[in-house]
Structure formats: C-alpha cells, structure tokens
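Researcher: We are triaging several targets before committing to wet-lab work. For this one, the compound of interest is flavin-adenine dinucleotide. I'm pasting the protein sequence and the ligand SMILES. What I need is the predicted three-dimensional arrangement of the protein with the ligand bound, expressed as structure tokens, so it can go straight into our comparison scripts without reformatting.
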Amino acid sequence: MPSPPERTRLRRKPGRGHHDRSVIDAIVDEALVCHIAFVGPHGPIALPTTHVRVGDELYIHGSAVSGMLTALADGIDACVTITLIDALVFARTAFHHSMNYRSVVVFGRATRVDDRVTKLAALAALIEKVEPGRSAACRPPNDKELVATSVLTLSLVEASAKIRSGPPLAEDGDDAHLPYWAGLIPLVTTRGAPSPARDPG
Ligand SMILES: Cc1cc2nc3c(=O)[nH]c(=O)nc-3n(C[C@H](O)[C@H](O)[C@H](O)COP(=O)(O)OP(=O)(O)OC[C@H]3O[C@@H](n4cnc5c(N)ncnc54)[C@H](O)[C@@H]3O)c2cc1C
C-alpha cells in the first residue's frame, strides 16, 4: 500500500492509525453523524450532519439554501470527522484517563450532484443507511423536494482512521498501587422501542 499523503499521516500515536479503506469504511458506515469543517463567510466552522458512503464517495444532503452546502458546493477545502466512542477509560491517575474510540478524518473538496438518477440514489442510500428497506417504505422525493434539496459528494480517497482500544495504560511504580478503581466503562448506542407517530385521523 502506498504511504499516506502528508496530510493524513498520523504523527501523534501513529500505531493507532490506519489507512486501510476497509477500516475507514467500517467506521464511516457505522456512524450516523459526521462533522464537516470548512472556512465559511464568517470564518472556520464545523457542523454536524448525516452522511452515507457509496463506494469511494461520501454523500451529504441538505436544504438547497443551507449555508454549509452552498459554501461546500463552491469546491472549497473541507475536512470531515467521524467519531465512535466505545468506552470510557478510567486510570488510577488523572493523566491516564482516556476513551476507546474509532475515528476517521477525511480531507477533500465536495461537488454538487446534479444528475437526477445519482441524486435520487444518494437520497435513498441516506435513508437505507438508517433503516434498510425504509426508502421503499415511504414516498420518494417529488420534483419540488428534489429542487429544494442539495446533494454533495466528497471522495474518501484522502482519509485516515485512528483507533484506541483496550485497558488504561499500565501505570508505573507507586501509581500502579494507588487505591483507585481503574478499568473500562463500555458505551453503546442502542435503538429504543419504536414510538408510532400520531394517526392524522
Ligand atoms: C473520542 C476522542 C477523544 C480524544 N481525546 C483526546 C484528548 O483529550 N486529547 C488529545 O490530545 N487527543 C485526543 N484525541 C485524539 C485526537 O483526535 C488527535 O488524534 C490527537 O490530539 C493528535 O492530534 P495531532 O494534531 O497531534 O494529530 P496528528 O497526528 O499530527 O494528525 C495528523 C493527521 O493524522 C490523522 N489523524 C489525527 N487524529 C486523528 C483521529 N482522531 N482520527 C483519524 N485520523 C486522525 C489526520 O489525517 C491528521 O491530519 C481524541 C480522539 C477521539 C476520537
């Protein structure tokens, strides 16, 4: 595998870094939310939004008048981050407290999807990601809604992943015998019981 470009080379704790697309894709696919950083008209900003990966492309969508989508559609530099938290890591010293996580950083420039077929496919993929089969279990976007919606695509080619797993780092000397609890508190996101919307009558 070619060495990663300078921008995605992990300098801090490089042993936690990954550039395998399978590792990156798995994190991107599991996460329901990403954060997109860019320099907008009022300066740097990072905004959360939903995303879906289709092959080598990350798709996002939103209102055609969204400030973020309008700015990104101009082809400016952007950085997308995705974070999954797996556990809280408690150590005997404050210094060694941490979190177990899987995260991804993507650099790139977005382009607007104008092709109707690709746009509809991306919008369906966004819904399918949340619930497989759901795009066929609701009315698809009509022409007015399609015009009101922007879809952007950004390549996943320039991306890195970073993963921390396992227990707290072993503490040295007297610290290893301090009378404090140390270990992992796993964190999981689960779906609750469905709550039906009120019948319109
Ligand atoms: C949930 C969570 C909590 C964290 N808490 C802390 C904290 O409290 N303090 C702290 O210093 N750091 C924390 N980190 C790690 C942080 O994201 C950075 O990796 C770290 O601060 C090193 O930053 P740097 O600028 O030296 O990175 P560098 O190693 O210089 O970054 C170079 C390149 O490596 C890649 N890279 C760096 N970090 C990540 C990442 N997290 N995911 C994917 N690619 C990456 C990017 O492509 C980046 O451009 C946390 C990460 C997560 C996900």
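Researcher: Any quick observations?
Model: The longest strand covers residues 77-90.
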